[in-house]
Amino acid sequence: MKFFSYIMVYRRFLLVVLTVLVLLPLPIVLHTKETECAYILFVVAIFWLTEALPLSVTALLPSLMFPMLGIMPSKKVASAYFKDFHLLLIGVICLATSIEKWNLHKRIALKMVMIVGVNPAWLTLGFMSSTAFLSMWLSNTSTAAMAMPIAEAVAQQIINAEAEVEATQMTYFNGSTNHGLEIDESVNGHETNERKEKTKPVPGCNNDSGKISSKVELEKNSGMGTKYRTKKGHMICKLMCLCIAYSSTIGGLTTITGTSTNLIFAEYFNTRYPDCRCLNFGSWFTFSFPAALIILLLSWIWLQWLFLGFNFKEMFKCGKTKTVQQKACAEVIKQEYQKLGPIRYQEIVTLVLFILMALLWFSRDPGFVPGWSALFSEYPGFATDSTVALLIGLLFFLIPAKRLTKTTPTGEIVAFDYSPLITWKEFQSFMPWDIAILVGGGFALADGCEESGLSNWIANKLSPLGSLPVWLIILISSLMVTSLTEVASNPATITLLLPILSPLAEAIHVNPLYILIPSTLCTSFAFLLPVANPPNAIVFSYGHLKVIDMVKAGLGVNIVGVAVVMLGIYTWIVPMFDLYTYPSWAPAMSNETMP
């Protein structure tokens, strides 16, 4: 028994050692460049899937193993770890840092929720819409960490409002006031305020610290014997949690910068197919926004039906008097918004820069009309989305936010300097360096597969799949990615599969975008488990959900997501990229490799 306990303690160490040793005969016996690269690929894949080593540490292995096995020189491997993607990421993180520092994200979220109203169905749609919008520009982790405390406060107000209704009814029937219930409500109200303080997200927190722990400890109702006064109260809490988790992921689908997987795909694609200039911020948004919007609406309907039922008559009933619960919700949202005070100069400047960045991204090369990149026609393809991101990002370090003052010996207060919108230290606290290294490792791995000839070998072996219908290949790859991303990190999954799926598309003579776009979008569909992605873990930590709740709800959202992606790839996405034609910018496969 003691032996097994030691194995459990040192299981990660043993896994690393055994993986390296067990797979070692592969390069020793066969001794070709392809098998040596395959050995490294298998080792990295196992470490990424099991997280035996931190993901970013595993991503550094190609820089160690490629030179040692003679696949690529060290200088060439090192150059893969910093690309155009990293410059784009830096600019986006500058924007996200300023948005969160000056609480602009909270103002946007609360305002959108106030617009849609306080009917439970519309309220959840408001939370999902605002969370999805913010997730387009911020990381899904920070978006969920910001939105969840607000949703939690609203959910508790609904539960407390139900308690007030019960108290009023008991007073009416008994003809006297129930003092015990009054005390119970005051305790609940105190706990709610306390909880709101404890769950307030801290700007700059990492993924682990973002998983805010909060326990809902309402006083037990004598009738139910649980921490929720009614089953409906419990269902509302579950619904709020899952709405925040799923919408923070769905919103990221719409922009290249919305998720790390989108960025990884864009950089990999532009590197592998440099002659294709069809993929930029505007084109991505054009095809992904309709898909994300449909997924969001169908997910809202699914979650609403699953937990509260979907009553169209109640939802669209005009002139209906608000219930006590709805008035309480409206009040708490209004109070939270009023706490922010009038909009400040710093928020206005951040909002202007935010809009300017989005407009420059969209107008760089929209496709249907010449963009501003045409002004630099002598250098086609030189200016990219990262150019815009860096330009706006630098302005955050330059534009003054407030004056710094000091008191002179005579008692006079004078200004001696100014503080910019963000500082380097604040930027560093937000910058996901682990993702930057992880993505660099993926690019290095892809370059190694090309240099060693492993990609061509895979393409030759996969060419028999050309006998299958293309729609079936896309469906199989999408389902495979969706399943794998539930147990492995999203960036690791897409980084691992891109060097495999690209040769597959080339081998069966299909436009690479036909397979890569659905697979990339499906990589974000990690909805089933609390550990599948950080937003799931954040909402699960509030204690309202069980794993089975997330599995039931997530399975429906996964099915919706894959179905919408399949619909999109055969309808509005086809004419955008001429997906039915094998493009000239993709490698021309030899007759031996074509089906």
From TrEMBL:
Subcellular location: Membrane
Gene Ontology CC, one term: plasma membrane
Biased composition annotated in UniProt, kind: Basic and acidic residues: 187-200
A Pfam match: Na_sulph_symp
Keywords: Ion transport, Membrane, Sodium, Sodium transport, Symport, Transmembrane, Transmembrane helix, Transport
GO MF, any single term: sodium:sulfate symporter activity
Listed transmembrane segments: 42-69, 81-99, 119-138, 239-265, 285-307, 343-362, 382-399, 470-501, 513-532, 553-573
Signal peptide (UniProt feature, chain positions): none
CDD domains: SLC13_permease (cd01115)
InterPro entries registered for this protein in UniProt: Na/sul_symport_CS, SLC13A/DASS
Transport is among the record's keywords: yes
Region annotation (Disordered) ranges: 187-206
Record-stated family: Belongs to the SLC13A/DASS transporter (TC 2.A.47) family. NADC subfamily.
UniProt-recorded name of the protein: Solute carrier family 13 member 1
Organism: Cercocebus atys (Sooty mangabey)
Gene: SLC13A1
